[in-house]
From TrEMBL:
The name this protein goes by in its record: Glycosyltransferase RgtA/B/C/D-like domain-containing protein
Keyword Cell cycle: no
Chain segments annotated as transmembrane: 88-108, 144-160, 189-206, 226-245, 302-320, 327-350, 362-384, 396-415
Phylogenetic classification of the source organism: Bacteria, Bacillati, Actinomycetota, Acidimicrobiia, Acidimicrobiales
Keywords: Membrane, Signal, Transmembrane, Transmembrane helix
Signal peptide bounds: 1-21
Source taxon at top rank: Bacteria
């Protein structure tokens, strides 16, 4: 019975990953920021191996270049690409990492309280995966890749603090991976580690002083501590080298940037409202999808009191279970520390549209909120049961596993709440195939990415595909993202590749004197006609409801001089994807039709080759 229950729990936790990989991986190619991550990972086994993570926007206001703390994600992807160098290798590698993190989480839950604890916890675990299904579970984009390792780290730290010694090694590896991937997570891992370490030391001191209990022998921790220390040094070797070689490097940059953000940030009140809305009522981890705009609204008085009540219930449960199930109290303390630390860090988010709606700044609320709810629920169960959760019969466990299985099925049959953009992958595949046959493999080329963001999404994907096929490429923008070697644009003797993306019929013209058209994607007549019909229908619907000002949720985002048609052809889809159109507008069938039409490759995308100047060729 226990073996079967464990197998079902494991399978239900893996289904969301399989469903997400099947959905996102269909025709997938790295584009935009994901292509930057994968391109940089190709340098891992070279002299230009990255010591730090991706560049961060944290230093934009101060002019100081700041990076996310470490390169572990690059190392994982780079190793996978050495084994199998395919476009989807990075997607599969991150899926495996996240799946292993989830299995590790379930394993240590079982070690803490047996199969019943894992079974009773499975609805919350699978609900978290159901809410995050899609690209968040499988994408190499660094803020997304940190979330499941963070979730597992919290459980491993609680297990280690409760006496499961080898959980410490897992906590070091997974915590280092999560902390290095994104700055938002770094402080949360540190807060959780400090909390659980403090609790463990406090428990050890109390047991040493108590004549009725035997304190654990320090020797029993010697080997796990040595292994954990060795893993810690290995995981943080890159950032440590950066500190030594660059006289403080990224650490000094982070300190100076943090000290400079005194105003113009999200602030205490708004950060607290975000945390309250993430925890209250139906918490974010139990909602069908990720929507950041909903977190930005002011919290109501009822929501604030709900969170206070939830925390008080968790505190009472932790106090009541401190002898029979001390892990519950440790989990509650850890969840509280993470939520408080995360809210404090949110107060420092620069108050501009890009950072306020950036998903990576808020994703930590999903595992942190689930952890608080789980610890509060466990405390109530232990306090109510005379002999802890073991008194619960198999019926309760089977019911919990049934809920988890239902959520796993929902991951398969319900649509992805964050539809995967397919057009960019099509553009990238077509253009890179044409370029591979027209470029000289003995020359060095520059990819022009210092242009419009929409152009860059495809340009970065084309850059990666050319690098993967053996071309020597340089960049003339985003230098910190690519390392020193790829940033030496002066090395190019083959010329500059300029990508242009426009609507059919809009004549962009050549990007410079002597530019030659060498690759082109022209959409089909059917796709163009369907797009025009969708735009006509949506423009008419907007006109009937009173115009563009009634569509955008935040009026200050909309330029009053923009006509209804210009909005539909321009920024409307961006507002819809980020949640900045009203709910009624988002639910219109005309909106859904435009999303479908735009997901097809309907743009004219070209690549021109601008020949190298004589000065550049002579330098070469």
């Amino acid at each position: 019975m226990r073996l079967a229950m464990g197998a079902v729990v494991t399978a239900s936790a893996l289904v969301p990953f399989a469903a997400s990989l099947a959905d996102v991986g269909r025709g997938w190619l790295p584009v935009a920021d994901t292509a930057i991550v994968v391109t940089r990972a190709r340098d891992v086994f070279t002299a230009d191996s990255p010591l730090l993570g991706q560049p961060s926007t944290a230093g934009d206001r101060t002019g100081v270049q700041v990076h996310h703390p470490g390169p572990l994600e690059f190392w994982v992807i780079g190793a996978a690409q050495k084994l199998v160098d395919r476009p989807a290798t990075s997607l599969v590698a991150i899926t495996v990492v996240n799946a292993v993190a989830t299995l590790c989480l379930l394993w240590w839950l079982r070690r803490l309280g047996g199969i019943r604890t894992a079974a009773l916890s499975s609805p919350i675990v699978v609900a978290l995966l159901w809410s995050l299904r899609g690209d968040i579970l499988v994408s190499p984009l660094n803020p997304l890749a940190a979330i499941l390792p963070l979730s597992a780290t919290l459980v491993c730290l609680v297990a280690a603090s409760s006496g499961r010694r080898w959980a410490l090694a897992w906590a070091v590896v997974l915590g280092s991976y999560a902390a290095q991937a994104h700055l938002t997570v770094t402080g949360l891992v540190g807060a959780a580690a400090l909390t659980t370490t403090g609790v463990a030391l406090g428990r050890w001191v109390l047991r040493r002083r108590s004549p009725r209990t035997a304190a654990p022998e320090p020797r029993s921790w010697r080997r796990p501590l040595l292994v954990a220390a060795a893993l810690l040094v290995a995981c943080w070797a890159g950032p440590l080298v950066d500190v030594v070689v660059n006289r403080g490097g990224n650490v000094v940059a982070l300190v100076s940037t943090g000290a400079a953000l005194d105003d113009g940030t999200l602030g205490w009140a708004r950060a607290a409202d975000v945390s309250v809305r993430a925890l209250a009522g139906r918490p974010v981890w139990a909602r069908p999808g990720v929507e950041t705009r909903a977190l930005g609204a002011p919290a109501t008085t009822g929501q604030r009191w709900f969170v206070v009540g939830l925390w008080c219930i968790g505190l009472a449960g932790a106090a009541a279970s401190r002898r029979r199930a001390p892990a519950v109290g440790i989990a509650f303390a850890t969840a509280t520390a993470v939520l408080v630390t995360g809210t404090l860090l949110m107060t420092r988010i620069p108050d501009n549209l890009f950072n306020v709606i950036a998903l990576g700044n808020y994703l930590w609320l999903w595992p942190a909120g689930a952890f608080l709810w789980a610890s509060a629920t466990a405390g109530c169960v232990v306090a109510a049961a005379p002999r802890t959760a073991r008194s619960l019969g198999d019926g309760a466990c089977l019911a919990a596993v049934g809920v988890a299985c239902s959520l796993a099925v929902a991951c398969v049959v319900t649509p992805n709440p964050r539809p995967v953009p397919r057009a960019e992958a099509t553009y990238t595949r077509v253009l890179s195939t044409q370029l591979a046959t027209s470029l000289d493999r003995g020359s060095v080329y520059v990819m022009d990415i210092d242009r419009a963001m929409q152009d860059n999404e495809v340009a970065l994907g084309v850059l990666l595909e050319l690098v993967r096929q053996g071309f020597e490429m340089r960049v003339n923008g985003f230098a910190p993202s690519f390392g020193p070697r790829r940033s030496r644009a002066a090395d190019a003797d083959g010329g500059v590749l300029v990508l242009q993306r426009s609507r059919v019929g809009a004549d962009a013209g050549p990007p410079g004197p002597g530019a030659n058209l060498i690759a082109e994607h022209t959409p089909s007549d059917v796709a163009i006609r369907e797009l025009a019909e969708a735009e006509d229908a949506l423009t008419e619907r907007i006109r009937r409801v009173g115009g563009a000002s009634h569509v955008v949720a935040l009026p200050e985002l909309h330029d009053e001089g923009t006509s209804d048609r210009e909005l539909v052809e321009g920024s409307f889809l961006g507002f819809q994807q980020t949640g900045f159109v009203t709910r009624d507008v988002a639910a219109w069938p005309e909106t859904a039709a435009l999303v479908r039409a735009r997901s097809a490759p309907v743009d004219l995308v070209t690549v021109h080759l601008v020949p190298a100047t004589p000065a550049t060729a002579q330098q070469r």
